[in-house]
Amino acid sequence: MTVDTCFQFGKIIRPHGTKGELLVQLIVEKPENFLKKESIFIEINKKLVPFFIRKIALLQKDKAIISLEDVNSEEDLDHLLDCFIFLPLEALPKLEKGHFYYYQIIDYDILDAILGKLGKVSQVYEMPGQDMLEMSYQDCEVLIPINDAIVHQADHTKKELYVSLPTGLLEIYLDTKQVEPDDAD
């Protein structure tokens, strides 16, 4: 298993109690979909190491306590603190037609309702408050907010992402490109 074939499920924050339980910050929208998993992968020294789950309990929407087999004390989990937890991509729930996971749309063509083909999705940034798509447009890096009013759906067969960009968004990036620090002299 490699990071490319998995998705990030959470991050180990700290021990919980003295019997090797872990407090985990979850990075998934619906953690209840994953409560019956038998195993997880923990990234240790840039490698994914499998661990069997003894017990998992949701504390809040974004936190869980996980007990792993062969992790029975604080000493057993010292090397696991601040490590990321992964699950295989196959563990992700199937989405309705037109919906997508961020990893799926990298390199998809972006088609605007008015302007047509603009570029390709080069990156997706998950940021507090607003996730963003990155694309290159006329040699400019352009960030597109991800929300239902702007990003409509994906066609996985054609590898296309359909958007309706706000008026003036591209011009902001193109105007910024024309006035670069070297040109200001």
**Helix tally?**
2
Structural class: mainly beta
Main β sheet profile = 6 strands, antiparallel, barrel
Helix content: under 10%
CATH architecture of the largest domain: Beta Barrel
Describe the structure.
With 185 residues, this protein is mainly beta. The chain folds into 2 domains: 3-89, Elongation Factor Tu (Ef-tu), domain 3, CATH 2.40.30.60; 102-178, SH3 type barrels (Roll). It is 8% helix and 45% strand. The protein has 2 helices and 12 strands; from the N terminus they run βββββαβββββββα. It has a 6-stranded antiparallel β-barrel. Strands 10-9-8-7-12-11 form a 6-stranded mixed β-sheet. Strand 3 and strand 4 form a beta hairpin. The chain is elongated and about 60 Å long. The mean pLDDT is 89.
What is this structure's SSE topology?
Blueprint: E1 6-16, E2 21-26, E3 39-44, E4 47-60, E5 63-68, H1 74-77, E6 84-88, E7 109-112, E8 116-125, E9 132-137, E10 140-145, E11 151-155, E12 160-163, H2 169-178
Parallel strand pairs: 7-12
Antiparallel strand pairs: 1-2, 1-6, 2-5, 3-4, 3-6, 4-5, 7-8, 8-9, 9-10, 11-12
Short structural summary:
This protein has 185 residues and is mostly beta strands.
Keywords:
single chain; 185 residues; mainly beta; Elongation Factor Tu (Ef-tu), domain 3; SH3 type barrels; 2 domains; six-stranded antiparallel β-barrel
